[in-house]
Amino acid sequence: MKIYYRVFYTLLVVSLLASCNKQPVKSTTDAKADSVLALMTLREKIGQLTLYTSDWDVTGPTMRKGYQTDIKNGDVGAIFNAIGAAYTRQLQQLAVENTRLKIPLLFGYDVIHGHRTIFPIPLAESCSWDLDMMQRSARIAAEEATAEGLHWTFAPMVDIARDPRWGRVMEGAGEDTYLGSKIAAARVKGFQGDDLSAVNTMLACVKHFAAYGAAQAGRDYHTVDMSDRVLRETYLPPYKAALDAGAATVMTSFNEIHGEPASGSHYLLTDILRKEWGFDGFVVTDYTSIMEMLYHGVVADTAAAAAMAINAGVDMDMQAGFFQDKLEQLVKAGKVSEARINEAAKRIIKLKFDLGLFDDPYKYCDTTREKTVVMNEKFLAEAKENAKRSIVLLKNENNILPLNKNTKTLAVIGPMANTRKDLIGAWSAAGDWKKAITLLEGIQQTVSPATKISFAKGSPIDADSTQYLAEAIAKAKQADAIVLAVGEASWMSGEAASRTSIQLPAIQRKLMEEIAKLNKPTVLVVMNGRPLDLSFEDKHFKAILETWFLGTQAGPAIAEVLFGDYNPSGKLTMTFPRSIGQIPIYYSMKNTGRPYESDPGNKYVSKYLDESNYPLYPFGHGLSYTTFAYTQVKLDKTSITSTDSIQVSCTVTNTGTRQGEEIVQLYVRDLVGSVTRPIKELKGFTKLDLKPGESREVTFQIKPADLRFYRKDMRFDYEAGEFEVYIGTNANTTNKAKFNLSVAE
Ligand code: GLC
Question: Which range marks the domain in which residue 632 is found?
Answer without folding.
Answer: 626-742
